[in-house]
Design brief:
- The chain is α+β, with helices and mostly antiparallel strands and 194 residues long.
- It contains 4 helices and 10 strands, in the order ββααααββββββββ.
- It has helices at 16-34, 40-43, 49-52, 67-82, and strands at 2-3, 7-11, 88-97, 116-123, 127-132, 138-143, 147-152, 157-160, 169-178, 192-193.
- Strands 1-2-7-4-9-3-10 form a 7-stranded antiparallel β-sheet. A 3-stranded antiparallel β-sheet has the order 6-5-8, with no helix packed on it.
- The longest helix has 19 residues, at 16-34.
- The chain is globular, with a radius of gyration of 15 Å.
Length: 194
């Protein structure tokens, strides 16, 4: 489905039980390894520690079950939409929200005006993500498990809303940017080709 010719969604058929288990393992690894390496800018927009740590790893560099299948689906959808064979790179991270956690209004600055961003719903029902386009039009993407969301980044802002269930809300978010935006000498470089 296409929203405002800006956000594209696609329902997938991944093994969500396996993916949810892999996300739990990944969450623990991230917390055990990088819990003190939060990103100050991200701390301002979310109270979720796992999201604050997004710059420390790329979920697709870990071989937990179903991560590669999701990466392949993102790559295929992106290449269909991108329309060229230029080199692009992807970073992806885990969003794991507990009761009352959410992400406030934000933009993905690295991919602004030249890249894409999106997310995949692992266990996100019922929830929504609200987009605000540069012309101030707003619309909601309803969180549906096994839903892949991809958007070209032309300056939108978006947010999630407070989670109210006892089980966590789990999504995998990602940015896709041209190779020219990646600093290859960055010691924390975790971008992979897509």
């Amino acid at each position: 489905m296409n929203y405002y010719n800006y956000v594209l969604t696609k329902e997938l058929e991944l093994d969500l039980a396996q993916l949810k288990s892999s996300c739990g393992l990944m969450r623990q690894l991230v917390l055990d390894t990088w819990s003190k390496n939060t990103d100050p800018a991200t701390v301002k927009i979310t109270n979720s520690l796992i999201t604050q740590l997004f710059k420390n790893y790329n979920i697709f560099m870990y071989s937990y079950p179903e991560f590669y299948q999701l990466y392949s689906e993102i790559k295929n959808l992106f290449r269909e939409q991108c329309g060229n064979n230029d080199p692009y790179y992807c970073q992806a991270w885990l969003n794991y929200y507990h009761t009352d956690e959410y992400v406030n209004w934000h933009q993905h600055n690295l991919s602004m005006n030249c890249g894409y961003h999106g997310f995949f719903c692992v266990d996100a029902e019922p929830s929504k993500t609200t987009y605000q386009l540069p012309d101030r039009a707003e619309f909601d993407i309803i969180g549906k498990n096994n839903l892949l969301v991809l958007s070209e980044n032309q300056g939108d802002s978006h947010r999630t809303w407070p989670w109210h269930l006892p089980e966590p809300r789990i999504t995998i978010a990602f940015d896709i940017v041209p190779a020219t935006r990646i600093n290859p000498s960055d010691r924390l470089n975790h971008w992979i080709p897509i």
